[in-house]
Amino acid sequence: MSAEVSSFWMDGDLRAASDAVAPLLAHGLHYGTGVFEGIRVYDTERGPAVFRLDAHMQRLDRGAAVLAMTVDSAAMAAAIGPLLRKNRLTDAYVRPVAFYSGGGLGLDLGALTATQAVAVLPWTSHLGDAAADRGVAVRVSPYRRISSRALPPLKLTGMYANACVAKLEAVRAGFEEALFVDAEGFVVEATGENVFLVRNGQVVAVDHEDALPGITRDTVAELAGAERRKVHLDELYDADEVFLTGTSAEVAPVTRLDGRGRLGVGPVTRELRQLYQDVVHGRSPEAEPWLTYV
Length: 294
Ligand SMILES: Cc1ncc(COP(=O)(O)O)c(C=O)c1O
Description:
Blueprint: E1 7-10, E2 13-16, H1 27-31, E3 34-36, E4 39-44, E5 47-51, H2 53-66, H3 73-86, E6 92-102, E7 113-122, H4 130-134, E8 136-140, H5 160-172, E9 177-181, E10 187-190, E11 194-199, E12 202-206, H6 215-224, E13 227-229, H7 233-237, E14 241-246, E15 250-257, E16 260-261, H8 267-280, E17 291-293
Parallel strand pairs: 8-9, 8-15, 12-13
Antiparallel strand pairs: 1-2, 1-7, 3-6, 4-5, 4-6, 5-17, 6-7, 9-10, 11-12, 11-14, 14-15, 15-16
């Protein structure tokens, strides 16, 4: 975790970062039996505001339910304000995480106990700030995204080994992000973002049963009046514009898709990027229900 952050919240208390530690035999460390969220706090004219806090916490609850884990997501949400003040942050990335930490290393989850924590970090984008302006180079991954029939597409910690190896392969090949497609060639998602395309002015939010139900995807689809449906890779190759959405990446244009170079950032992507910024910064009145001031 970042050295700039002095305090985390863990199991009900604000703790010095150096005291917020997990045991070596934590079940979640060995088997990925945890669940997390990635949330943004934006500095607005009315003070720091968490974007779509309820939606993030509901998704965390759904992931915890898959693991039969009891979490107090309301307490985690309530920790965000005090944590921001303690760490003197107004613009931040918030990382709630809950993981099995005690009760042994057996694979039966019944008797385990969980640890809950919240970290706030100074803001940095997963794709780098430059991605927004210059666009992201994306490579179709030789790896498959974990099927929803293997694990529901939620933010379970163990699932992210899949994302990490796909991203590693893409970066080694000279790209910045990997795109998962399924065995039939349908687009699933990127390693930490959902996918959109624009064709003849129509905006399409890529839907796939193996993709995380992204909160940014939902937001942008609503703002754009986008159609939500499955999309084949061939259709993505033919699109006028392609962009990625995620809490961290926000709205990030794709300017290279495999060997196909693209010129510049498309006008629809540019407009939606701006609209999204207005919404998350509370400059758009219809965004108010999505903002929780802390
Ligand atoms: C695998 C994956 N897909 C998509 C997303 C985008 O989801 P959201 O917009 O809710 O951040 C994320 C990030 O949370 C992710 O990890």
